């Protein structure tokens, strides 16, 4: 038996490895976007792919997001499996029409004749000191569009597994990559990558009995930190990492909330009209008689994303999460 | 020294060996739309081609009038007529081989029919029983596209994909003059030229984007001139001259097939009807303008040539008329039957595999339908 070296890897490296393995295994996979070729992407996720697979498989496109996604639609119509990179969250907006009007509904429009196995990778979220238009959390727009899957990893291992599953999916996937976790490290063995799990499954990152924090992407590590800090207050918090916003794993979420009786939804996206409202409603519809307190939300303020020197006041942090936990009517419930 | 003077005084040195990356001269369109019918060249056109085009144009005209009539009978939700533009519609279909792909807009149902699609299935979108009435792979024809210009990048991507696979396939995308103002038009042409994709763009300049005339749409010398900025040839053609359109599109398709890259073709034509049956064209254009175009009708142009050459005999005319009437009668009869709809189809093709949430919603609708059926049964 050979022992494989398990080394620390970053999320960015795991994503790059997922692309590489997909390109190697499936000749129909094509990576395309701005600067993904020679440069290897502004976050270096596609580093080395053009050198290894040639620029027909990993293509530097003209700088036009609607054109990138629009041509990917045509490529998918011809049987290819494009993986498109949008350079930043707010730069994906020019591609919205292609995404909403074609990518999301081509299967439906054609009664299944033209599936759209397209993965749209979007670096998203704040916390990296980016100037304006570089830190948006746009997931609610994508979630509100039937026909799309919306997936976001929070760990190095999930980055690999979820991206492989997204590329393998016969449906379009908006794959949201938490920018500030690109450099997060974990022990990860690239020679024995985790089996690809089906999309749509949430996971309990930390088991607890007092209350459930429901979160995803960049807020997962924040919630885990909050859960550790909460021990000092006597709260044993469960943390659910959704991983997939669409399809939504009602089962895992509801099971957790029924166990704990209390829930806080945490995300960077703005609260009003944000994912938290939908999640809170789904919990209330399913777990009303188990709830000891209203479902609370800790979200970004309802403001345009702030300038970098002020973003720490906007992003959900440990203290704000603990404040929300403190408001879960403990005196009445226990 | 003022700021403006400083700007005036500034003389940047040009890079030493600058030159245009492409010679623009061969890309420029002709000064006037290319024509065959009514010129000396018309006598060179094979009689078989003229007769074939005549039959297709008459049939196409009849299809347009029949579909318009169906809107008045409530059998179509809406119909954007291509009356007056049949030469472009027919030529687009005839310029392609079976293996090629056509990317029509919502006004191009006639091109779809001319490509061999059943007229009833071509009208699925406009009747409203589904969004697309055919399998695009079967006809190598994208769904009729409503959001303007958005199908153009699809054509480029498909042409590019075919080339990557080593397949000998050309994509032809159709768009109107208004659509050329859309960003996707620009992005599609730019991608096509950069990638040298085997794509052909046919702009039917019919004078109006609903009510807005071309003068308010662009300041370009012609729409064909836009090609030069992308580094592809632009061709200007009389869009009512079926022989000329077919020839120009044929050349563009051949060029694309041989690896010469994309071409932009502007066909100058006129939308004889309103934008759709729901539009009132008298609000934005005088009848005299429409009347003036009747003398330059695509059917008439071919008939003049046939007559001049003694090719338009009674036998041919009757056969063409009967064929068109048979098509119209069949279309009328089948469109007058209510389509059979299954509401449960609403959930069938949203995802490859239904999500839990959609399964729940499908169950809700099924229960509603069952309750409805029970009530209907009790009422009888």
Strand content of chain B: 5-15%
CATH class call of the largest domain in chain B: Alpha Beta
Instruction: Work out the helix count of chain A.
Output: 12
Our count of domains of chain B comes out at: 2
Task: Describe the protein's architecture and organization.
The complex is a heterodimer of chains A (334) and B (380). In chain A, 34% of the residues lie in helices and 20% in strands. Chain A is built from 12 helices and 14 strands. In chain A, strand 10, helix 8 and strand 11 form a beta-alpha-beta unit. In chain A, helix 1 runs parallel beside helix 7 and helix 9 crosses helix 10. Chain A starts with 6 loop residues before the first strand and ends with a helix. Chain B folds into 2 domains: 304 residues, Thiamin diphosphate (ThDP)-binding fold, Pyr/PP domains (Rossmann fold), CATH 3.40.50; 37 residues. In chain B, 46% of the residues lie in helices and 8% in strands. Chain B contains 15 helices and 7 strands. In chain B, strands 1-2-3-7-6 form a 5-stranded parallel β-sheet, with helices on both faces. A two-stranded antiparallel ribbon of chain B has the order 4-5. The longest helix of chain B is centred in the N-terminal third of the chain and has 26 residues.
What's the short version?
The complex is a heterodimer of chains A (334) and B (380). Chain A is an alpha/beta fold. Chain A is 34% helix and 20% strand.
Helix-strand layout with pairing:
The complex is a heterodimer of chains A (334) and B (380).
Chain A: E1 7-10, H1 11-25, E2 29-33, H2 49-53, E3 58-60, H3 65-77, E4 81-85, H4 96-103, H5 106-109, E5 119-124, H6 139-143, E6 149-151, H7 156-168, E7 173-178, E8 185-188, E9 203-206, E10 211-215, H8 219-230, E11 237-241, E12 244-246, H9 250-260, E13 263-270, H10 275-287, E14 296-300, H11 318-326, H12 330-333
Parallel strand pairs in A: 2-3, 2-4, 4-5, 5-7, 6-7, 10-11, 10-13, 13-14
Antiparallel strand pairs in A: 1-8, 6-12, 9-11
Helix pairs in contact in A: 1-7, 3-4, 8-11, 9-10
Chain B: H1 3-9, H2 47-72, H3 86-94, E1 101-103, H4 109-114, H5 119-122, H6 124-127, H7 136-139, H8 151-165, E2 171-176, H9 183-195, E3 199-205, E4 208-209, E5 212-213, H10 226-230, E6 234-238, H11 242-257, E7 263-268, H12 287-294, H13 298-308, H14 314-335, H15 356-379
Parallel strand pairs in B: 1-2, 2-3, 3-7, 6-7
Antiparallel strand pairs in B: 4-5
Helix pairs in contact in B: 2-3, 2-13, 2-14, 3-11, 8-9
């Amino acid at each position: 038996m050979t022992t494989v070296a398990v080394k620390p890897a970053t999320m960015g490296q795991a994503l790059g490895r997922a692309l590489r393995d997909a390109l190697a295994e499936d000749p129909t996979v094509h990576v395309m976007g701005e600067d993904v070729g020679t440069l290897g992407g502004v976050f270096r996720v596609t580093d080395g792919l053009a050198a290894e697979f040639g620029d027909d498989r990993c293509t530097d496109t003209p700088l036009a997001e609607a054109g990138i996604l629009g041509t990917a639609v045509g490529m998918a119509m011809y049987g290819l499996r494009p993986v498109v990179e949008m350079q930043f969250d707010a730069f994906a907006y020019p591609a919205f029409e292609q995404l909403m009007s074609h990518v999301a509904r081509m299967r439906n429009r054609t009664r299944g004749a033209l599936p759209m196995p397209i993965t749209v990778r979007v670096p998203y979220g704040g916390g990296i000191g980016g100037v304006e238009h570089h830190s948006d959390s746009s997931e609610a727009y994508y979630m509100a569009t039937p026909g799309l899957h919306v997936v976001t990893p929070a760990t190095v291992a999930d980055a690999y597994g979820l991206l492989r599953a997204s590329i393998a999916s016969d449906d379009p996937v908006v794959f949201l990559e938490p920018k500030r976790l690109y450099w997060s490290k974990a022990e990860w063995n690239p020679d024995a990558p985790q089996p690809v799990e089906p999309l749509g499954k949430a996971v309990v990152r930390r088991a607890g009995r007092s209350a459930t924090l429901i979160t995803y992407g960049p807020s997962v590590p924040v919630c885990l930190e909050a859960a550790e800090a909460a021990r000092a207050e006597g709260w044993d918090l469960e943390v659910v990492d959704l991983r997939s916003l669409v399809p939504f794993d009602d089962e895992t979420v509801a099971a957790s909330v029924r166990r704990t009786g209390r829930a806080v939804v945490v995300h960077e996206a703005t609260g009003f009209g944000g994912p938290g409202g939908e999640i809170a409603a789904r919990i209330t519809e399913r777990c009303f008689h188990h709830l000891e307190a209203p479902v609370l939300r800790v979200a970004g303020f309802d403001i345009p994303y702030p300038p970098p020197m002020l973003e720490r006041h906007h992003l959900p942090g440990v203290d704000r999460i603990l404040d929300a936990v403190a408001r879960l009517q403990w005196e009445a419930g226990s | 020294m003022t700021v403006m003077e400083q700007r005036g005084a500034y003389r940047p040195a040009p890079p030493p060996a600058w030159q245009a990356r492409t010679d623009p001269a061969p890309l420029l369109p002709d000064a006037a739309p290319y024509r065959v019918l009514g010129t000396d060249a018309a006598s060179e056109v094979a009689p078989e081609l003229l007769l074939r085009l005549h039959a297709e144009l008459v049939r196409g005209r009849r299809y347009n009038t029949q579909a318009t009539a169906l809107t008045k009978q409530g059998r179509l939700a809406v119909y954007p007529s291509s009356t007056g533009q049949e030469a472009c519609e027919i030529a687009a279909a005839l310029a392609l081989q079976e293996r090629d792909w056509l990317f029509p807009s919502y006004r191009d149902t006639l091109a779809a029919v001319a490509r061999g699609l059943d007229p009833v299935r071509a009208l699925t979108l406009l009747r409203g029983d589904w969004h697309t009435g055919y399998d695009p792979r079967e006809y190598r024809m994208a769904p009729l596209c409503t959001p303007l210009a958005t199908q153009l990048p699809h054509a480029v991507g498909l042409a590019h994909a075919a080339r990557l696979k080593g397949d000998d396939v050309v994509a032809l995308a159709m768009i109107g003059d208004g659509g050329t103002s859309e960003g996707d038009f620009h992005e599609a042409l730019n991608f096509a030229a950069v990638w040298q994709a085997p794509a052909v763009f046919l702009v039917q300049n019919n004078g109006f984007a609903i009510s807005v005339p071309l003068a308010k749409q662009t300041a370009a010398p012609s729409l064909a001139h836009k090609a030069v900025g992308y580094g592809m040839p632009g061709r200007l053609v009389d869009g009512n001259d079926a022989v000329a359109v077919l020839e120009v599109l044929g050349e563009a398709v051949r060029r694309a097939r041989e690896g010469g890259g994309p071409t932009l073709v502007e066909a100058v034509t006129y939308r004889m009807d309103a934008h759709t049956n729901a539009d009132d064209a008298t609000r934005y254009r005088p009848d005299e303008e429409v009347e003036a175009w009747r003398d330059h009708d695509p059917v008439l142009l071919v008939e003049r040539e046939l007559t001049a050459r003694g090719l338009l005999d009674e036998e041919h005319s009757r056969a063409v008329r009967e064929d068109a009437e048979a098509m119209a009668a069949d279309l009328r009869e089948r469109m007058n039957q209510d389509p059979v709809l299954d509401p449960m189809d609403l959930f069938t093709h949203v995802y490859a595999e239904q999500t839990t949430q959609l399964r729940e919603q499908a169950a809700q609708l099924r229960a509603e339908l069952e309750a409805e059926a029970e009530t209907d049964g009790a009422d009888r």
